[in-house]
Amino acid sequence: MVLVEPGSTATEIFDKSGAAARASLALADPRRSALYARHLAAVGRAQARQRLAPVDPVARTVVTALEARRPRRLYVAPGDARLIGLLTRLPARPRERLVAGILGLTGIKAS
């Protein structure tokens, strides 16, 4: 088995997840979603800043893995995949603090 870590790649998943989130919020109790309005706005700003890598480097990495005579267990595509891999190996508390900071959630309390 071979694993290819793609990182943040420009695929439909981000559009689909955004649409699903909007649909869920439309069905939510407005009083409850209002409690997290600042959180949702911060995450929305973080998503707008996100830079998605093109799919071509990931496709080349997959081809490299498929054509390898003795493939490695793990291939990391160019881009932010290596950073994401490091992030997943951090202990929970520092990882959560780092992600909250990246998303702009640090210090925001529920209304």
Compact summary:
The chain has 111 residues and is mainly alpha-helical.
SSE diagram, text form:
Elements: E1 3-5, H1 13-27, H2 30-35, H3 37-49, H4 56-67, E2 74-76, H5 81-88, H6 92-103
Parallel strand pairs: 1-2
Please tell me about this protein's structure.
It is built from 6 helices and 2 strands, in the order βααααβαα. It is mostly helical and 111 residues long. Strands 1-2 form a two-stranded parallel sheet. The chain is elongated. The model has no long low-confidence stretch (mean pLDDT 92).
Structural key phrases:
mainly alpha; 111 residues; elongated; two-stranded parallel ribbon
Number of strands: 2
What amount of the residues lies in strands? Answer: 5-15%
Model regions low in confidence, pLDDT < 50 over at least 5 residues: none
**Widest sheet: strand ordering:** 1-2
Using the CA coordinates, give the radius of gyration: 18 Å
Main structural class: mainly alpha
